[in-house]
Amino acid sequence: MSTTLDIQRPSGHVARVWLDRPDVRNAFNDGVIAELAQAFASFAVDDALRAVVLGGHGKAFCAGADLAWMKQMAGYDWEQNRADAQQLADMLWAIHTCPVPVVARIHGDCYAGGVGLAAVCDIRVAAQGVTFCLSEARLGLIPATIGPYVIRAIGETASRRYFTTAERFPAAEAHRIGLVHEAVAAEALDATVDAIVSALVANGPHAVRACKRLVRDIAGAPIDDALRADTARRIADIRASDEGKEGVRSFLEKRAPGWQAGTKRE
User: Does one domain contain both 32 and 123?
Assistant: First the structure.
């Protein structure tokens, strides 16, 4: 049973994962890292799942590393530090490679590792008033394990600034640089997230998974003969699939596709 997460299944198609350490602003420790990795490993083999929402209980989305955990790490040697960092890197990868889209619901402050946790999600929605900060340099550290995901989200130029200055920045700036897709009024946060989840659930479940994989596989790849052949194969595969055939038939027949049967607004 989880002690740091609140995992809910409002339906077979949707999972909601809440960081549940409000007393420490949902800060990371080794327990949070292990339980997130375990949760997303289970999602990876759940064929019924179509979307995951990741949020936090309390006032903050995630405040980075837990102070007690940092005190413990202060006594680690190099190998212990490497092993500890590898666990965080593996957890982030488990979320990044989750077969279905992961939607970040960012309702409160998002610092350091919390920014990385948001960045590994596919769709990120933040409430206006949320503050973001890549604060590692203030402590003489670097955002290394989260770096690949944050740089992909905000680009090299913004990363050069916010990695090195450790400045705080608001949700509007996070939206401008691409860290969040939408910055909405706090009272609209849940409705916005729910609308995104409903859109995901309404689409072909295999197609959504294939779309996520497509982006991950071809982002930044050269448009060469191999890529053109690969993309042609992918569309042929899905056109010939049962889901692809049903999707086209339902469109032509002006009816809902079969995968929408029994679904509801989440």
Answer: yes
Nearest in space to 262 (alpha carbons), one of 10, 43, 11:
11
Please give the residue range of the domain that contains residue 253: 204-260
Question: Where do the H-state alpha helices sit in 128-223?
Answer: 147-165, 171-177, 189-202, 205-218
Is 194 found in the same domain as 213? no
| Together in a domain, 159 and 235 | no
Query: b/e map of 10-25 (b: 16 or more CB within 10 Å)?
Result: ebebbbbbbbbbeebb
CA distances from 48 to 204, 205, 259, 263 (A): 12, 9, 11, 12
101 and 10 in one domain?
yes
| Dist. CA 33–CA 113, nearest whole Å | 11
Beta strand pairing call for 5-11 and 14-19: antiparallel
Q: Tell me: the pLDDT tens digits for 64-91?
A: 988 888 888 878 899 998 998 999 999 9
Distance CA 201, CA 217 (A): 23
The verdict on pTM exceeding 0.90 is yes
CA dihedral 218, 104, 91, 174 (to 10 degrees): 70
Sheet (strand 131-133) strand order: 110-111, 131-133, 168-170
What distance in Å separates the CA atoms of residue 55 and residue 6, rounded to the nearest whole number?
A: 10
- pLDDT (0 to 100) of residue 76: 86
Half-sphere exposure of 228 (CA within 13 A, CB side): 3
Backbone angles phi, psi at 106, to 5 degrees: -105, 100
Q: Is the same domain home to 122 and 61?
A: yes
> Could you say which of 151, 183, 199 is where a domain stops?
199
The span from the CA of 266 to the CA of 263, in Å, is 9
Do 190 and 209 reside in the same domain of the chain? Answer: no
